[in-house]
Write a structure and sequence with these properties.
The complex is a heterodimer. By secondary structure, chain A is an alpha/beta fold. In chain A, about 30% of the residues lie in helices and about 20% in strands. Chain A has an 8-stranded mixed β-sheet, with helices on both faces. A 4-stranded antiparallel β-sheet of chain A has the order 2-1-4-5, covered by helices on one side. By secondary structure, chain B is an alpha/beta fold. An 8-stranded mixed β-sheet of chain B has the order 6-7-8-3-9-10-12-11, sandwiched between helices. In chain B, strands 2-1-4-5 form a 4-stranded antiparallel β-sheet. The longest helix of chain B is centred in the middle third of the chain and has 18 residues. Chain B is globular and about 65 Å long. The chains are: A alpha/beta, B alpha/beta. Chains A and B meet through helix 6, helix 7, helix 8 and helix 9 of A and helix 7, helix 8, helix 9, helix 10 and helix 11 of B.
Chain lengths: ~350, ~375
Amino acid sequence: MTTVNPPLLEVSRLTKHYLSPRRWLAPPKPPIQAVDEVSFQVARGETLSLVGESGCGKTTTAKSVMRLIEPTAGSVKLEGKELIGMASETMRQHRRDLQIIFQDPYASLNPRLKAGEIVAEPLRNFGIGAGERRERVQWLFSRVGLRPEGVAKYAYEFSGGQRQRLGIARALSLNPKLIVCDEPVSALDVSVQAQVVNLLMDLQAEFGIAYLFVAHDLAVVRHISHRVAVMYLGHIVEIADRDTLFASPLHPYTEVLLSAVPVPDPRSRPKRMLLQGDPPSPANPPAGCRFHTRCPLAQPICSEQKPPLTLRSTTGRAAVSPSGAADTAASPANGAPSASGGHWVACHFR
Amino acid sequence: MTRPRGAFGADTPLLEVEGLRTWFDTLTGRVRSVDGVSFTVERGRTLGVVGESGCGKSVTALSIMRLVPTPPGRHMGSVRLGGTDLMTLSEREMRRVRGNRISMIFQEPMTSLNPVLSIGRQIAETVRLHRGGSRADALGRAVEMLRVVQRPEPERRVQEYPHQLSGGMRQRVMIAMALACDPEVLIADEPTTALDVTIQAQILELIRGLQARLGMGVVMITHDLGVVAESCDRVVVMYAGRKVEEADVVDLFDRPLHPYTRALMASMPSMNTSTARLAEIPGLVPAPSELGRGCAFADRCSLARDRCRVESPALTDQGGSHVVACFAVQEGWQAAGGAAAGEAVGQRAGEAVGVAGRAPDDGVPAR
């Protein structure tokens, strides 16, 4: 594609099927279709959130973008360069621009390294000298709100919120363009969660970092995102800018998901749309629209044809196919994210 | 299905916790995990207990169930269940109460279920222990309970094992087990924290429905103010082992008084507003071993004065059975300079600053 200004991240038809290990003499099991032909874009300085229930494929998608999980098919382009199939050394160089923060700050920090070494490790990997490293680590510590004497401590000496700050400092160390945030605040208490959410938003405003934000807490997502993609059983069913999605969701699953969030107002105990039972297994997903087995609107066509993700409204922004099929003028003027906008829905009836 | 609930009067609260203290004597000193908590639960009503991790919510629940090992734990105070003080019962007598008159469900249903027994057998075990009867009768009750918690095809499903179930279904099985003997009180310790929102909605709806049918009192322990707003009638806010505020749910959300409650509400990203910054509470919940003499929240509170650091405020009624333990509220301290109270909970654009910036006693609704 010869676009003048390619989007920062362009994911097209990303697919990850897990093959079950074949048991001796047993018939082969169907693959788990964790992510199935998922396409979206992230513009510079933008936060795109992936939301959905556990098992919907949001984390698999995020990790496939990082190539921490090798996708089965599809393409991931960072600034127009294809990452899938890239040679490992070239990929390593590109990881400078692409960092990740994990859900569990306890498990994602090396217990044998001092905090300063944890944050300096990416710098060392890219050949930055000791003096500069020390300076940069000091700066990173102060930027994420950790005390400078913390460099000599071990991870276990920090609280959960501080550990997550440490993870953010490590991700920030190489000036990345995109940080994948995999449930970064789910393990934290509300007051600490607010500290980390504010920090992430401040860093974005200051350095223009884009976030691919994976979360199941819709209140946090609503607060931090510019755009939101809703996933169900490995498919994106709806993608729109935040205010459109929360104010006027179109996909019946999005409606159900939003109505399930408890509202912190005892006067409005809303009547909610409850789904029956659990989502079907991704090893044997329903044909057609994957939501049709639980959908209040389902008609025969839903079990026969998979509804494509189609544009419903441009909501005042340049319409760009989430798969990157159309033109793009991704120009985040004055830091405000734009581009790759529009309200896309995969439903036969909405 | 409701059965007569003993002979005590209709106005006697079902569960009365009074001055409950649970201390642990450790090598590094005494840890006061729960330090003088009192509340009551009425029949058919839900009491919410909120607070962040480490504030003593779960130890309170375990203490009521007498599930805290003693030693190292040590209890003081009383827990009266329909007139019986559970704290004075022998372990043998307590076993007849637990799972029968008072039941508990936990956050992680997988670790609370026995992985090698079928779920039917686990439910039946509770029934036989408390009600006696034949194995077949008990299994029949298990099937009935699975139907109550909306497990499809209960006759077949009783033979399933926990690993075959999803998280939401496991929590349903836990609820079936907890309710199999028609308890008077159900203690739910973060019952939906490990679940997705859609499943959380199902489980909360289920608990609400069963409560209306069976008339039990529920103690809902949670850190999620959304869950509180939705499912509770009355709320206890805990901080560092103490009750800092208690009020009816509507009153609490309209008029949060304690600086901690206000800060907690302001730090929540709300579904209705999306302002630029969330309010932060500086610092962390102190470890119970680090508590001094004064108010435990003083170090994180911008309204705090010298008195707060040396003296612990008592609970006082602020009208409408709304009690709070805070000198600033009781004595109507003004924030030093208009902005100071705002800083108590960080800066937040929009309404929340207005709330936090006001003197805490002017009774302006939170939203």
